[in-house]
Amino acid sequence: MVCFNRWKCVNFHMFLTFEGIDFCGKSTQARLLAERLEKDHVVRLIREPGGTRISERLREILLDRRHLELTDVAELFLFSASRAQLVAEVIRPAIGRSELVICDRYYDSTTAYQGFGRGIDREAISRINALATGGTDPDLTFVIDIPVEEIERRKQSAGLSFDRMEISGQQFYGRVRAGYQNMARTLERMVLLDGTLPAQEIHQEIWRTLLLQQIIHS
Ligand code: TYD
């Protein structure tokens, strides 16, 4: 962000991200926020992995349930490759046009899933994240936290078929969740929210945070 008098400032730009374990409800929150902000600003809502021609193809490889032989390190590089393309083609240009960018997952997902979840060295991940993004960091990150058992409940009511990541076991998700909690304790830009609350309550909490941080004005 470049301007302190933000909301109607010409040079205003803001990069917000949503994070959390699968089925935490972050996509709903990203959409609710985008819809509300769109009334006053040009908003670009993006989800990862994906968002460019190449990133969508990498997404197919990453989420295909038949690709069980994909190694943890190959997975790390594919998520990062998808992100590098997205940053170059979409995120950086949008920020350059002073748009408000909201990303449903970003490099904190790599730290949580490939770092804490898969156990890949986190220093290496941090260097790869920096390389993939060229230092384009979020200003503010909402982490929606739910207990791991809640995933099973939500999966059953969703009744869909699940992708390669979503068939991961509870132990894996336990490590990913603990990773997010750990990051939220140490990173100032992160706000941890209780994902078991009703969606509208979570949304109001997000809105209050934006007001408090003077990202928006009432
Ligand atoms: P998606 O269907 O978009 O799930 P969600 O709606 O939960 O975001 O699939 C993305 C999956 O990829 C999700 O399980 C999280 C995982 N992921 C990583 O493991 N590392 C990453 O860097 C990213 C961006 C996602």
- The SS-based structural class is alpha/beta
Overall CATH architecture: 3-Layer(aba) Sandwich
Q: What is the 3D shape?
A: globular
Please state the CA-atom Rg, rounded to the nearest Å: 17 Å
Q: Give the terminus-to-terminus CA distance.
A: 19 Å
CATH topology: Rossmann fold
In this structure, how is the largest beta sheet organized? 5 strands, parallel
Which residues form runs of ≥5 with pLDDT under 50? 1-11
Ligand catalogue? thymidine-5'-diphosphate
**Mean pLDDT across every amino acid position:** 93
Strand order of the largest sheet: 2-3-1-4-5
Would you list the SSEs in sequence order as H and E?
EHEHHEHHEHHEH
CATH superfamily: P-loop containing nucleotide triphosphate hydrolases
The helix fraction, in percent, is: 40-55%
Strand content of the residues, in percent?
5-15%
Number of domains: 1
CATH C-level class = Alpha Beta
H/I helix tally: 8
Give a count of the beta strands, DSSP E runs of length 2 or more: 5
Secondary-structure blueprint of this entry?
Layout: E1 14-19, H1 26-37, E2 43-47, H2 53-63, H3 72-96, E3 100-104, H4 107-117, H5 122-133, E4 140-145, H6 148-158, H7 170-186, E5 190-194, H8 199-212
The chain binds thymidine-5'-diphosphate.
Task: Describe the structure in brief.
It contains 8 helices and 5 strands.
